[in-house]
Write a structure and sequence with these properties.
Layout lengths: L7 E2 L5 E2 L10 H16 L4 E7 L5 H14 L3 E6 L10 H6 L17 H22 L2 E6 L6 H13 L5 E8 L5 H12 L3 E4 L5 H12 L17 H14 L10 H17 L3 H11 L4 E2 L1 H8 L7 H9 L4 E2 L4 E2 L3 H9 L3 H17 L4 H11 L5 H14 L4 H13 L6 H16 L3 H13 L4 H14 L8 H10 L5 H17 L9 H9 L4 H17 L3 H16 L3 H4 L3 H16 L3 H18 L5 H14 L3 H18 L6 H15 L2 H15 L4 H18 L5 H13 L1 E2 L2 E2 L4 H11 L3 H17 L4 H15 L2 H11 L4 H15 L4 H18 L2 H13 L20 H11 L4 H8 L3 H15 L4 H19 L1
Parallel strand pairs: 3-6, 3-7, 4-5, 5-6
Antiparallel strand pairs: 1-2, 8-10, 9-10, 11-12
């Protein structure tokens, strides 16, 4: 059919009006087109220009511009266009443009001539007519939508461009990129063989699209903002969208608030783009939209049931339409919103069916189950046994690396399994530890209780009991011992399961304070099965180590802990880190290493475990690791860091139900940290918790409550009676609390509290205990030093206290500072100058640890001796530029030439911790290098200290 565009002169000389405004963003293309048309028209020459681009790229408007330029240059412009579907008379576009009727052909074929003869004579008539027109002036023939022209018209263009090559006849043809019709491909190939010029229209830049919407919509341009990602830089699509928006929102000044309206427009827009594709291409892109973000041609071929070569043509069409992109080895949509919008045009049942067949095809191709499960979790239907097996296998594969994701897969497998099926409860037992590790404690406990109360078989019952025992020390079901005995009596329960259940049950009792029961009937039962499973062997070694600490034989405790570490090395790394027995053994070993002097090794052990738990999403373990690390930091005098760890542990525990953390141990550490920091609110919270513990019926709880009461009373300078002091001594002599050994230095604190309360007899018994413990553990100097410290307090032996302060060294800075202060108190009246030196040593240590309350007390003692320490605490750099004491300690060493590793060794920190302090110091001080850091510190701190001195 013919088509007049813009303001163009046709055969009859009539003028037709059409849009000929320049296409925004096409300046370079239009300039090139203008020069080409003018050059050929003015030279009276012929030529061929092939304009190519995806649907909506603005080809028709470019043709209009070409025709307008040609008309202005004096040429005659003829326009023709193909019709989608090709439902027209052959050669009709050319005949219509030249106003030739088929019956007008002079000397044409006879009445009985066939179609081939008729076409031949029509083609001759067209050629003659074009020759006639070019005698008058140059002719420009615009052929739009070449891809929709009939085959005979395309053949005529191929023929005429050759026959009329010497005439002043310009051909400007516009076609979609990668047009599928063989005749179009043949025409394009022949034209480029004869040096035709090509003009390719690529998508417009985002700025040009936005400006175009502003031109078309004015104040309503904001309507298009949420839809820009669906336009892919196609100006024709932009115009269609803007016209549609003006119909839907004729007076809206801003984007519609209703998300449903936006989605409706998106659906309309995507449908329009799909309607521009051939049937095969549309089917391909619809099926592809259900496959996810990326897919392969092979995958599409298998789903569509067509060979890969057969997909080449529709795939080229879809790529040209900007609906898909081709990577190195896969296909993908330009962005997820477009894929989702295309998929939304499919009915949900069809979309689910396609996705299900896609998963089956990938499964047959050997794709890992983990990749398949990510799709199955959304499309699996109830009763789908195959999907259940895939999800279960994926959960097993991910159980170690990502327990949270594994729990999600296994939960879905349970949901599609029949409710009354025994297999559902067996899946529940596998799901319990995954939920627990991921921090979904309540759901894990409820699930375990349901299985224990109505198990489908003995093995499932035993495994559910084991998971309950691992989750918490209370084994939160009625008559837990009865369940354990029932499992132990069943012959159809595997011995390793019995072994692990018994060992975990006994370990729980030890951790909650029932150390005496460890020597009873349950221990005998454990000994009969010990060694059947390496996990129970690990638990048994840990219990032996705890029992040795309870008897204050630390050498034996270390020996059994070493054996436990050897057992741990024999476990499968793929599952070891997820077992509570392993976590408890690791935490316990870190505590032993700290007491025996290896603080660095203890911190490294805990930090590695905590990092693994963070990376794998084992949230249930985080409170344990943070509490253990806080205790290690407290022992080494890093009070601020210890407080942060305890706060983080509390936050995690609050969201997970505080499982497996040794809550009493955390409160004991919190009380000591608050004591030294001068944290009034923290001390009050600890005092309130102590009251709760003292009211408990559990002996262990009451002992812990008494110990926290001693700490809070010492903070308040309150006197205590013998009863709470003796209860606190019972806590001290027990030797351990949860999976942590009690700090040897706690004996010093208890002696000081007893003396302050006038309970000298209680203090004497504590000193005797400390000395007896030191004799039993002569290999470990810390016990002997703390015993000597306690004896020095009791006897008022200042020389002993000074010697003790020196012997503590840097390993226990808080205890060392306390010993200096204790010695200074005894010297105040006898030798004030010596007392001053002791208090200054104590103050320096307290400031280095960040012990604000102790620092204030030491400064008060110095002021009574006539010394006026600086407000910062007696050290020139204390509080410098907002750095914490720990950060200052690291900065001071680095400024004087120490490496990070050397600073870590001198401060008994891990290299990771030192790196963190250095990074924080860089941020606070605004420096970027260690050199800048050193210069700033030396200039502002060291030089200031020299001036003040």
């Amino acid at each position: 059919m013919s088509q007049a565009i813009d303001t163009l002169w046709t055969m009859s000389g009539a003028v037709f009006e059409a849009a000929s405004s320049p296409v925004r963003g096409r300046r370079a293309e239009q300039e090139r087109l203008t020069q080409w048309v003018r050059r050929h028209v003015h030279r009276n020459g012929g030529g061929v220009l092939w304009v190519e681009g995806p649907a909506g790229a603005g080809k028709s408007r470019i043709l209009a511009c070409a025709g307008n330029e040609a008309a202005l240059a004096g040429a005659r412009v003829l326009t023709i266009s193909g019709m989608a579907g090709g439902r027209m008379t052959p050669l009709a576009p050319l005949l219509d443009a030249l106003t030739i009727e088929p019956g007008d052909v002079a000397h044409g074929p006879s009445a009985g001539a066939d179609q081939e003869d008729t076409s031949y004579w029509l083609l001759r008539k067209v050629a003659d007519r074009l020759r006639e027109l070019t005698r008058e002036r140059p002719v420009v023939l615009l052929v739009d939508d070449v891809h929709d022209c009939d085959d005979l018209t395309l053949l005529a263009v191929r023929t005429l461009t050759v026959r009329l090559a010497g005439l002043p006849l310009l051909w400007v043809l516009a076609s979609r990129t990668h047009a599928d019709a063989p005749a179009v491909r043949a025409l394009r190939r022949d034209l480029f063989t004869r040096q035709a010029t090509q003009l390719e229209l690529s998508p417009l830049a985002p700025d040009a699209i936005r400006q175009m919407t502003q031109d078309l919509l004015g104040p309503q341009a904001a309507l298009v903002a949420p839809l820009l990602c669906y336009l892919d830089g196609l100006p024709g699509t932009v115009r269609q969208l803007c016209a549609h928006l003006q119909e839907v929102f004729p007076v809206a000044p801003c984007p519609p608030a209703d998300a449903g309206d936006v989605q409706e427009v998106v659906t309309w827009l995507v449908t329009r783009r799909l309607d521009q594709l051939s049937e095969d291409a549309r089917e391909l892109v619809l099926i592809a939209s259900a496959l996810g973000d990326t897919f392969t041609v092979q995958h599409l071929s298998q789903l569509l049931g067509r060979s890969e070569p057969a997909l080449l043509a529709p795939l080229r069409e879809v790529l040209a339409a900007q609906l898909l992109r081709a990577g190195d080895d896969h296909l993908s949509f330009p962005h997820a919103p477009l894929r989702e919008a295309v998929a939304a045009t499919l009915p949900r049942p069809i979309r689910l069916s396609v996705r299900r067949r896609s998963v089956e095809v990938r499964a047959r191709a050997g794709v890992p189950t983990v990749s398949l499960a990510a799709e199955l979790i959304d499309i699996a239907e109830p009763g789908d046994a195959w999907a259940g097996r895939i999800l279960r296998q994926a959960a097993q594969d991910l159980a170690f690396a990502a327990p949270g994701t594994a729990a999600r897969y296994l939960r879905r497998a349970m949901e599609i399994t029949t409710a009354l099926c025994p297999e559902r409860q067996r899946l529940s037992v596998e799901l319990i530890p995954l939920l627990w590790q991921a921090g979904e404690i309540t759901e894990a406990r409820d699930l375990a209780r349901d299985v224990v109360q109505a198990p489908p078989d003995a093995v499932t019952h035993a495994r559910a009991c084991l998971e309950l025992a691992r989750m918490d020390s209370q084994f939160a079901v009625q008559q837990p011992d009865a369940h354990v005995r029932h499992v132990h009596r069943r012959r159809d329960v595997p011995v390793p399961v019995k072994d692990q259940l018994l060992s975990m049950t006994l370990l729980n009792r030890l951790l909650t304070g029932d150390a005496e029961e460890a020597c009873g009937a349950v221990a005998d039962a454990l000994m009969r099965t010990r060694g059947v499973h390496p996990v129970s062997e690990l638990a048994h070694r840990t219990m032996q180590s705890i029992s040795a600490v309870h008897r204050h034989h630390w050498a034996d405790a270390i020996k059994h802990s070493d054996a436990a570490a050897a057992s741990l090395a024999q476990l499968d790394p793929g599952c070891a880190a997820s077992l509570p027995e392993v976590a408890l053994a690791t935490s316990w070993r870190a505590s032993l290493l700290s007491v025996t002097g290896d603080d660095r090794g203890a911190l490294n052990l805990v930090e590695a475990a905590a990092e693994e738990a963070e990376q794998r999403g084992r949230r249930a373990f985080l409170p344990l690791w943070r509490t253990t690390r806080a205790r290690l930091l407290l022992d080494t005098g890093q009070l601020a860091a210890a407080a942060r760890e305890l706060a983080a542990a509390e936050d995690v525990a609050a969201t997970t139900g505080l499982p497996f953390t040794g809550e009493p141990a955390a409160w004991c550490s919190r009380a000591r940290v608050a004591f030294h920091l001068g944290d009034d609110a923290g001390v009050e919270a600890c005092a309130a918790r102590a009251e709760e513990y003292l009211a408990s019926t559990e002996p262990q709880q009451r002992r812990i409550g008494a110990w926290i009461t001693v700490v809070t009373a010492a903070y308040r300078d309150a006197e205590l009676t013998a009863r709470p002091l003796l209860a606190a001594k019972a806590h001290l002599t027990r030797g351990y609390l949860h999976a942590t050994g009690i700090d040897p230095g706690d004996a010093v604190l208890l002696v000081r509290a007893a003396l302050a309360s006038g309970q000298r007899e209680v203090a004497a018994t504590v000193v005797e205990f400390a000395e007896h413990r030191a004799q039993r553990n002569a290999r470990f100097p810390l016990f002997e030093v703390t015993a000597r410290h306690a004896r020095g307090l009791l006897d008022g032996d200042r020389s002993s206290l000074m010697d003790t302060a020196e012997r503590y060294g840097n390993a226990r800075p808080l205890l060392s500072s306390q010993a200096w202060e204790d010695a200074g108190v005894l010297m105040t009246s006898a030798d004030p100058s010596e007392a001053r030196a002791c208090f200054e040593r104590a103050l320096e240590g307290y400031e280095g640890c960040g012990a604000e309350r102790d620092s204030r007390r030491a400064r008060s003692r110095l002021r009574k001796l006539g010394v006026k320490p600086t407000a910062a605490g007696g050290t020139p750099d204390a509080g410098w530029r907002g750095l914490t004491p720990s950060e200052l300690g690291v900065v001071r060493l680095i400024a004087h030439g120490a490496t990070n590793r050397q600073a870590a060794e001198r401060l008994f920190l891990s290299p990771h911790t030192v790196n963190t302090h250095v990074r924080h110091a860089f941020e606070k001080l605004g420096v970027r290098s260690r050199v800048q850091l050193a210069r700033l510190y030396l200039r502002e701190v060291d030089e200031a200290a020299e001036v003040s001195s």
